[in-house]
Amino acid sequence: MDKKRIFILLGHPDNGSYCGALARAYEKRAAEARHETRFMSLEKMDFEPNLRRGYKDVQKLEQPLIAFQENMKWAEHFVLVFPLWWASAPAKLIGLFDRAILPGFGFKFHEGRMFQEKLLSGRSARIIMTMDAPRPYYWFLFLGIPGLKAVKKGILKFCGVSPVRASVFTGMKEAKEKKLAKQIKVVEEMGRKGK
Predict the structure, then answer these.
(1) Which of 163, 162, 164, 124 is closest to 7 using CA atoms?
(2) Angle 48-101-117 (CA atoms, 0-180°, nearest 5)?
(3) What does pTM read for this prediction?
(4) Edge-to-edge strands of the sheet including 124-130?
(5) How far is CA 142 from CA 86, 107, 149, in A?
(6) Which domain covers residue 127, as residue numbers?
């Protein structure tokens, strides 16, 4: 099994959440399998999440955003753990993407070319997402899971990250201890394999 450089981002604003347990389980098992790991937690990142004027003005990056960019450049594999809230990702996580995945870092448009240059190519990703509702609820209501599609296709694949695999844990509101323990084991195995 090839050893990888893996960057894990806990995209839940509460370290003590179940997403936090999943992210730490992945990291622990990946480190035990001798993958190189780096870990960041959204809760500990202090930055302005509002991209105030879009790309019109340069908005100075705070240190956590610089560290996020450095970790993304370093990584061969990116693992993102987050909950689905209001059919999307938490606002601070979206703010992180708005502020850090900028033109010249994640992508670049060239005059005369229709499609962007993908600056994060050469990396793979795993999204681990939790949601309270059962999966059919989102399929019937939204024809899919919009928050997952936005992150997977609209952000990561847009910037060249591929493949992007997703593991979605549903029905969390009613989940019993046995189910949660099984999910932790699934995530640990992903960490061991660096997948």
Answers:
(1) 124
(2) 160
(3) 0.93
(4) 36-41, 5-10, 77-83, 124-130, 164-169
(5) 12, 28, 11
(6) 5-52+59-193
Q: Give residue for tokens 């997977």.
A: 152
Please report, for the domain that includes residue 108, its CATH number: 3.40.50.360
Place of tokens 């005369």: 112
Say if residue 142's pLDDT is above 60. no
Averaged pLDDT of the chain: 91
Number of domains in the chain: 1
The pLDDT tens digits of the residues spanning 29-69 come to 999 999 999 999 999 999 999 988 888 887 899 999 999 99
